[in-house]
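Subject: complex prediction, re-run

Hi both,

The earlier run crashed halfway through, so I resubmitted it with identical inputs.
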Amino acid sequence: MIFVARAIALVVTVVMVTYMLRHFAFALNRLFRHQRMNYTDLAGFHLPSVSILIPMHNEEDVAPDVLEALLEADYPHDPERFEIIPINDHSTDRTGEILDAYALHNPLIKPLHRQNGERGKSPTLREATKIARGEVLVIFDADYVPGRAMLKFLAAPFADPEVGAVMGRVVPHNVGSSLLTRLMDLERAGGYQINQQARYNLNLLPQYGGTAGGVRRVALEAAGEWDSSSLTEDTELTVRLAILGWKVAYINRAECYEEVPENWDVRRKQIERWAIGHTECFHRYLGKMLRSPCLSWKAKVDGVLLLGVYLTAPLIVLGLLACVVLFFGGQTYLPALTAFFIASTAYNCLGNFASFFEIGTSVVLDGGQQRVRLLSLNIANSIFSTATVTLALAKYYGRRFFGRPLPPWSKTKRFRNGNGNGNGNGNGSGTSDPTSRERGLKFILARNTLRKSVTS
Amino acid sequence: MILVLLLLFLALLGLNFYFGVREWWHPKDSAPLPVDVEYVRVENYFGKSFRTKMQEWLQTASPVETTKPCEPPMKSLLEKPNHERILILTGGLLSGDGHEALVYCEGDLQLSDHCSLHREVYCRGNLNSGTGVQFQALAADGEIILGPENDVSRWVDAHRKILLGRGTVIHSRVSSSESIELEEQVAAQSLYASVVFTTGYRPCEPADIAAQMEDSIEETPDGVGQHASPFPEDCSVSQLAADTWLVRGDLHLPEGKRVATNIIVRGALTTGPDCEFWGDVKADRAELGLRNRVHGNLVSGGGIAIGESGWVGKSIAAETDILLHSGVRVGTPAILAAVSAGKEVKMEADVAVYGKVTGGQAVKSVGKIDADCDVKPRAKKRWFAVTVLLALVICQLRMPVFAQAERQLPFTQPQENSSARAANPSDPALGDPTGNYRFRLEAGGFDNAVSNRFGQWWGGLISLSYKPSNRVTTSASLISQTRPAGTEQLVTLDTVIDWSKWFYTQIGVSGGGADDPAAFFPRYRYDINGFFKVPGKPALVLDGGYTRLQFGAPVGGRISRMGAIYYWRKFVFQGNLNFNNVRPGNHKSKSVSGAVQYGQEGHYWIGLTMGGGREAWQTLTLTPQDVQFTSYSTSVFLRKWFTPRHGMAFSYNYAVKRAAYRINGVDVRFFVDF
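This time it finished cleanly. Structure:
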């Protein structure tokens, strides 16, 4: 028993130290090292033709915002080079009517209505890809609101024929709604400002995130279309492209607002889907990725760490159990434990664990002043995620063991336009600051006045 | 003991969460981050925004009563509510140094030689400047013609054409609604206009190659099909997509080769004359031969060089440098393109880019790109050889020999080393309020462990540097050092003056040591150094100087020195030979010193000094002078900017005074520019 506990503790330590070093390396790279050229200077010159694909299932509360934002984009509104394809995927609310109303007033919007066939993001995208005419397919979720210049910045890297996909940066707009949204804001900052940018700087594997990003059509065709069996089609596509030799570019300046979950239940479901989808990709593509002649050894290591990231949660739980066993098995004693707690707490004050350091660094780079103080509370998010992912992976491995299929893809619930009742059933509760929330939605509200004239 | 530890733990834990909980319950920073920042996507944002603001200020500012009546070209003086002043000009010739007010000119404006304007200028007509004029920023509704050696700290924007005279430096963007012409030795960060060209290009020439290329775009490529590999059989080639070939390893295409598809080369791509690419091209490094034509984009993970009379129809992007040889055209007058380099874009004469040119470090117009300015990656062997050569040839006495690498760089002001200064030899930027900042405050401490029971020698330093103009940099510092025998202070004043483009001097005076032959610091000391740039070889600077030291009577010393500084890319090399004379006894000795540093002002410097000989003086934080001991020493340092204004410098120093003692020392400083 003691031997097993020791072995587990050793494995957990090695894995966690590896991730720790990775997080520190990324944050330090972002702070002090040369930042790679990101093609933003090419934005606006020789733009490729793009098709914007927006899967929508019961999105009447958010659909007008994303369409308005795209119509305001400073991408040339030339029908040969720009089209918006919102996809009404089995909606039972007014989504279809809204899309038709917009299409009536604007020929750039070409809605696709799906009432038959398989439901979900991948089947939807697969069908829309067939009718899209653009060289580049840009995907948005319905709750996203891109900045005016985002499309130009996203399109620019496709000047490089090696770039198969491009990912932009996502910024939560409902930051002030609850503690969770504020913690999610920190997490997103760390994930994009540091993690994605550093991976791009270091020629590793920046991840195409499935929304707020673009894919070169020929690269998608070479990689084999959207896989409807995957819960995380974005991660899956990233790995397939990388294995074939395509690059994924990350553009920090291609910024887009998103809506993050405002309550913990919605967050739990989101994490569960990501954890299972990611881990499924880990099992499907680990071997192929390691054997790929197109990837450098650095990219392969990063790929393993990227795909295996959700496996760290059960490892942490196992490590804690191993610690308990070792403690009661007489392998440690109180002064040592006390010293450990004091040391870890002191360390906490200076920057906490590596991922927290990464988040803190991102907030500083973004010019955040006060919000960085929430960093210590991110431990709540961390514990919640660890528990949720562990349970999700337990379910996943249980299903694998018994030969059951993966759970179906499920849409993340929306909270815009009033307390999460947009078929989201979220309660939007928490210590939200209505003033700051209004500030964040200012432009969205401004667009709402426009949309009334279209939808009425 | 356990209780104390527990309380400590709880206190730290509470402290850890206190600020977070406070921000959670009383949010102060919960607004979403702004996205879609306008200045990123609008090329002439600054000029446009400044014009709008100026119109607002003119409405709200009130007239200032002056004792003398305004003389032309001055019309009136206004004051904004925040007490900033706006000088209103009717037009004509403006001269003088140190204009502190914003300038608004209603007509055409001429600026005399060496005029200096510390705030932004808005000219409603044409603007024409003489030699050596300094601007903060510049907007004109007409043309802008800047004379030789002008310096603009920020941006330039005109509604009509812009001409940048020889040697002019723009530290930020240049934008024009018509055209931008660059004479030789011009540097800027980015340029945007319908056409950006260097001297020799004639926009209206009938045989303009770009127009020819535009016409030829519709031609069908012959020979090389899309379905068969167009590359030599010994290449490792695969098809990434239907229209994209991937080549692993270096690829050389012979004269006249045509490629119909996109091509990706995971290695170096070199081509002979008259090759033609119909798709996009990507390579780790690309060197295109004469008259090559690329109809798509040209991208490189390293550098790109385009041979004479080449043409690229779409954009060019490179992680490092881009070299455009004479006759190169990028884009077409009808469809603009961008040239973007992570580091430098160098443009020879008769180069035209229809659109935008931008470099992470600079865009430069050069006469003729010499052979060693190619885009090949630096060979490690070369660096190793240089290091070994330095180690063998140069040895020194920890002399503060470092020159300022930024002297060669376009975006920092000329500075000079702190030779013979009583400070850290590893300090490449002492007395250097660099970039756009006028002041630098620097503070730090040092600690040296000295063997043979000499004990710890430690102390601190505070230094303030001030740059009243681009020609003069002056600094004052106070050093305090404590040894087991007591504490002493040294005060230093230092001035660097740029007399001309080719000559500058450094003069320093210091004192404060006790009137005692055994004092740590001299009673007084002065240094005079001169620096000459070799004509035709601006990267090579020859220097010579003289130092006089006087300790408590009768101990004193004289040092004459000669040496050279050489700039190569981000490296700075320096070597000096010192002739030392110590009194009483009239002891004479020679010593040599050498140094190499790498980096860039505003980012980081890393360096190494080495030396040896019989020294007449030492860094004063270490030892006083003596020519009796054969010594050698070395020092490594790192100076790092954490933000554009703040940074730290670290150094480790090691010196051996044979038969006397050995020193291990560290020096840490914090600096801030403002």
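The longest helix of chain B spans residues 2-25.

- K.
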